[in-house]
Amino acid sequence: MKKQLSQSNNNEAYNNTFWIIISSLILLGILLRFFHIDLRPFHHDESLNAIYGRYFYHHPTTHYYKYHPMLHGPFLYCVYPFWYQIFGTTISSARIFMATMGSALLFLPYIFRSYLKSNIVLLLTGFLATAPSLIYWARYVRHDSPMLIAISLSLIAFLFKCPWKRALLFIVPFMVQFTIKENAFLHFAILFLYLFYEAIFVKVFKCETETYLTKVLTFCKKNIIPIVVSVLIGAFLFILFFSAFFNYPQGVLDGLYRKSLAYWVEQHNIDRIKGPFIYQILFLSWYEQVFLIAVISQMFHFYMKRSKNIRIIFSTILLISILLNQLIPEARFNSGFLSEVLKLKLPLDIYPFVILMFHAVFSTSILLLEKKNKLALFNYLFTAMFFTYSLVGEKVPWLSLYPIYFGVIFLSFYLSEEVSDFHFYFKTTWMKALIALCFLFQLRMAIMINYSRAGHATELISQVHTSTQYESLLFKLKSKLESKHLPRQHKLLILKENTWPLTWYLYEIPGFYYIQGITPTQDYDYVLSSTQDKTTQDALKETHHLIRTPFRWWWVPPYKTMTFKQWFNYGLNHNPWTVTGTMDVNLYIKKGLTL
Fold first, then answer.
1. 432 falls in which pLDDT band (50, 70, 90)?
2. Distance between CA 497 and CA 477 in Å, rounded?
3. Which of 15, 162, 247, 449 is the most buried (most CB within 10 A)?
4. Is 313 helix (H, G, I), strand (E, B) or coil?
5. pLDDT tens per residue across span 393-403
6. Measured CA distances, 271 to 112, 183, 264, 343 (Å)
7. CA gap 285, 282 in Å, rounded
8. How far is CA 21 from each of CA 27, 118, 435, rounded to the nearest angstrom?
9. What are phi and psi of 465, to 5 degrees?
10. SS3 call for 102
11. Angle at CA 403, nearest 5°, toward 339 and 176?
12. Distance from CA of residue 40 to its chain's centroid?
């Protein structure tokens, strides 16, 4: 069957039109990821992620990364020194590493073309090329792009029949995930929960299908040597990175269990960055509208295609959600079990919580009963990721990458295998017009978010972003400190929250200090401090004049009072309906000096 599908796809795919379209889409996606890559000021998180590799690059025997879960795994900090050696230590070079991996994802549809219809390959490539948030995170120094590449390599392993290729490509990248980011533990748990659920389900309902657990055990039994070798290579890389190339051996156990899991369990419990359960859905409705519409359409199609009894069961769940929303007092969402354990902060959270939790299990079970194990697997991975990343205590925009990634994979297989008449609809005029409209809308959003409003205060995706005025100020200070035409070396002292991202911009620049030592504050030519730092203000009021400048800005929607009109308008034009937040800092300049 697979061979026939592959041959069928090859017959319809390999023509001049296909090559022109897919090449153009990939080139567009690469351009959107690389063009003017230093446009947006460095976010403080980016500066942290980029500079620890820079420390290691400049001082490999002393300034290696000592694992701390807040900064995630050591992978980036061990790889970046080699990258800096080739491309230099600039904002552009740091982001080019991410853009390269983000661009590599564009080739996944073509790599998996034997499993997909040719028009699905084109649609998927077009989506990946212009998806606003995917472009944003491909131009942002975080650990998530390497995570997606590692996951992709593990998936690519199943394209090979050779046991050695399959074992190496699946196991080694899977183990490397644990050196990148701690959510690898979450992915491991989600995957293995499915393997055992599928095995138990098939046995209880006596489905005459071979489970993935059985396939895994059979493969392990027949190919013990490739598996052992792959595990050893993965373990070696794990030890190599966590020990900072054998400089910090205690980091191995810290990453394995001593610090990694405990820290994130604590973060989940305290809700460091709070938000409602519906956060991820809201984020997708504002940044990935095409994807969210496709997900809702797929769910509707799934139940409409099934029996009347299945539709009645799902409709009952919808009714239960409505009743719970009406019956649970709003006060319950402020504290207690709903808020602290289930992370339900708003009455509106009831709907995605109940529907997602039920749909994940119910739809997966239906597909297993229909002996569609591959679809069941990716349906589960997508819905489980969506539910889990909605549940986690820390509500941050980059976590939407994982539901999007697994959702795109599932939707691709679903369209290819479940929508038998999709090829017919794809050729109709109204469908072509709809696809063109979605493509243009998404391209508009991608340009707006990543270029015309890059890092702007109005963008939720920016979280808390460095202002352009602050970056300009840093360039001026850097120019002063590096000037060879001054009678003496000027000195800059930074205090309070200015450490990040300023340290990246001024690292190893002469005259830059972030520890005051015994030198009086008045002796520094420039001092950057908090607007609330009255001690510094009093100490410098006679010797320095003051400039106040924006440091960081942000926008957080008022979830509890948000109306439909406000939600819709932000999704369409990205104009916030409340005032954006701003944090200023004070720059003290010694009298007689200028910038």
1. confident
2. 17
3. 449
4. helix
5. 889 999 999 99
6. 39, 16, 10, 9
7. 5
8. 10, 11, 14
9. -115, 150
10. helix
11. 105
12. 18
Ramachandran region, residue 514 (left: φ > 0; alpha: ψ -120 to 50; beta: rest): alpha
Q: Which residues contact 561 (CB under 8 A, 6 or more apart)?
A: none
Domain count, the chain: 1
Q: How far is CA 72 from CA 65, 131, 255, 263, 286, in A?
A: 11, 26, 9, 11, 28
Domain contains 443: no
Tally of CA atoms within 13 A in the half-sphere of 332 that contains its CB: 15
Give CA–CA dist 358/539, Å, rounded: 62
Say what the pLDDT of residue 6 is: 46
Helical axes 224-242 vs 75-87, angle rounded to 10°: 70
CA angle 174, 192, 272 (to 5 degrees): 75
Domain-embedded: residue 350? no
Could you give phi then psi for residue 194, rounded to 5 degrees?
Answer: -65, -45
- pLDDT at position 1 is 41
- φ and ψ of 534, to 5 deg: -70, -30
Q: What is the DSSP letter of 579?
A: P
3-state secondary structure of 304: helix
Both tokens assigned to 465: 């972003």
In the DSSP assignment, the letter for residue 543 is: T
- Look up residue 455 and give its DSSP letter: T
Tell me, yes or no, whether 261 lies in a domain.
Answer: no
- Within a domain: 539: yes
Tokens describing residue 166: 């399959």
Paired tokens of 526: 């420039």
A 10 A CB-CB count for 342 gives 16
Q: Tell me the per-residue pLDDT of 6-63, one tens digit each, with 9 for 90 and over.
A: 444 444 456 788 999 999 999 999 999 999 999 999 999 999 999 999 999 999 999 9
Tokens at residue 61, please?
A: 């025997």
Q: Among all chains, which residue has been given the structure tokens 């002469």?
A: 510
Average of per-residue pLDDT across 79-105: 96
Largest CA distance in the chain: 86
Question: How far apart are the C-alpha atoms of 334 and 338, rounded to whole Å?
Answer: 8
Amino acid of residue 249: P
Which bin fits 53, alpha (ψ -120 to 50), beta or left (φ > 0)?
Answer: alpha
Rg (CA), the chain: 26
pTM: 0.94
- Of the chain, the percentage scoring pLDDT greater than 90 comes to 84
Q: Across-strand partners of 550?
A: 584
For residue 535, CA distances in Å to 531, 538, 542 come to: 10, 5, 13
| Helix (H) / strand (E) containing 530 | strand 526-530
Could you report the per-residue pLDDT of 161-194, keeping only the tens digit for each?
999 999 999 999 999 999 999 999 999 999 999 9
Q: Token pair of 412, please?
A: 């691709």
- Give the other-Cβ count within 10 Å of 185's Cβ: 15
- What's the mean pLDDT when you consider all of the chain? 93
